[in-house]
Amino acid sequence: HIIDITVDPRKAIESACDVLADGFPIAIPTETVYGLAADATNPAAITRIYETKGRPRFNPLICHMADLAMAEQYAIFDPVSRALAEAFWPGPLTIVLPLRSESRIHSLATAGLDTVGIRLPRGFAGDLIRAFGKPLAAPSANTSGKISATSAAHVEADLGAKLKLILDAGASVVGVESTIVKVEDGKLRLLRPGGLPAEDIERVAGQKLHRAKKASAAIEAPGMLASHYAPGAAVRLGATHIDAGEAFIAFGATSLPGAEKAAIVLNLSPEGNLAEAAANLFDYMKRADASGAGTIAFSAIPDEGLGEAINDRLRRAAAPRE
Ligand code: TXA
Ligand code: MG
C-alpha cells in the first residue's frame, strides 16, 4: 500500500483520487511534513482522519488547495493575506482566513470555527489536489502528540496498519510544519512558527508579526497545546554537557563534554545551517529515541530564522507530559 510517486506520478494520482473519493484518508508527501489527507467536504472522511490520528475534534485541520483561485472559493482574503499568498504560495505558509458562508468545507474540518487555515503545498501534493478538484483537509501524518513524519517510512511505522495508501516522494525537504499566520484587528499574528521564517513574512507584509504569549497561543491554535512532538525518551534542551548513556543531538561544529559517552551522537547540521537542521530534526529525534536512551540532550540552537520553529518543536517535545 506504499506507492513511490516518482515511478508513475499520473498513476499514483489516479490511485490516490480513487481512495479519496471513497472517503478514506491517505498519506501524502508535502514539502513540510507528510500529511494525512482526506476530502475536506466529506464528513465521514474527516472523521476518519481524527480517528486514525487519535486527535481531539476541537483541533481544526489545515485545508490544502491547488491554487489561489480555489482558495478564494472557500475563504475571504484581506489585502495583507493576499500579498502573503502571492509571495509565498505554494510553500510552507498557512493563512487563517474567514470562511465564506457558502463554503462546502465541512465544519468537522474547521472544528466549527468561522475561520479556515489554508495552505498551498508545493509540487506533487498540489498536482494531486488539482486532479481531485476539491480541497484536502490534512493534519500531519502522525499519531496525535507524537513526532511528525518526514518520510513514508515514518508514516508506515506509526500509522501503516490503519492506512489504505501511503504516497512516497522521499524525505520532506523543509522538515518542519508550515508557519501559521492570521490577520486580526489589522494585526498580523504568528500562531505557529514553521517552515517559512518570520523575517521573510515581515518583509513582504511590511509589518512586524505579533507573537502570542505562550499561554494564549495554546487557545489560538488548539493543536499547539503543551506536550506535543513527544518522543518516548525525556528531552533536555540547551545542554552544556552530556551524561553517560544519553542520546546527544548536536548543532554546529562544537561538541560537548561527555559526548564520547553518549548512546548515540547525531548532528542536525555540522555547518550550523538551520534549513538543514530543520530537514533533519524529526528523523533524528526518532533515531535518537530508537537508540533506547532514557534522555535526548540537545545543544542550543539559535532562535533566528528557521531556528524559531525548531526551538518551538523542541520546547513542546520537552514539555511535561500527562
Ligand atoms: O505543514 C503543515 O502545516 C502540515 C502539512 C501536512 O500541511 N500540516 C499540519 O497540520 O501541521 P496539523 O494539523 O498537524 O497542525 C495544524 C495546526 C493546528 O495547531 C491547528 O490548531 C491549527 O493548525 N489550525 C488549523 N485551523 C485553524 C484555524 N482556523 N484557526 C487557528 N488555528 C488553526
Ligand atoms: Mg501535527
Automatic annotation (TrEMBL):
GO terms for molecular function: ATP binding; double-stranded RNA binding; L-threonylcarbamoyladenylate synthase; tRNA binding. The keyword Cytoplasm applies. Residues 10-196 form the YrdC-like domain. Gene3D superfamilies: DHBP synthase, Threonylcarbamoyl-AMP synthase, C-terminal domain. Keywords: ATP-binding, Cytoplasm, Nucleotide-binding, Nucleotidyltransferase, Transferase, tRNA processing. It is found in: Cytoplasm. PROSITE patterns: YRDC. Its EC number is 2.7.7.87. One of its GO terms (biological process) is regulation of translational fidelity. ATP binds at R55, N59, T115, S148, R192, Y229. GO terms for cellular component: cytoplasm. The keyword Transferase applies. L-threonine binds at T32, H64, R119, A138, S140, S178. It catalyses: L-threonine + hydrogencarbonate + ATP = L-threonylcarbamoyladenylate + diphosphate + H2O. It is an enzyme of class 2 (transferase). It comes from the Bacteria. PANTHER family: SUA5, THREONYLCARBAMOYL-AMP SYNTHASE. Belongs to the SUA5 family. Required for the formation of a threonylcarbamoyl group on adenosine at position 37 (t(6)A37) in tRNAs that read codons beginning with adenine. This is Threonylcarbamoyl-AMP synthase.
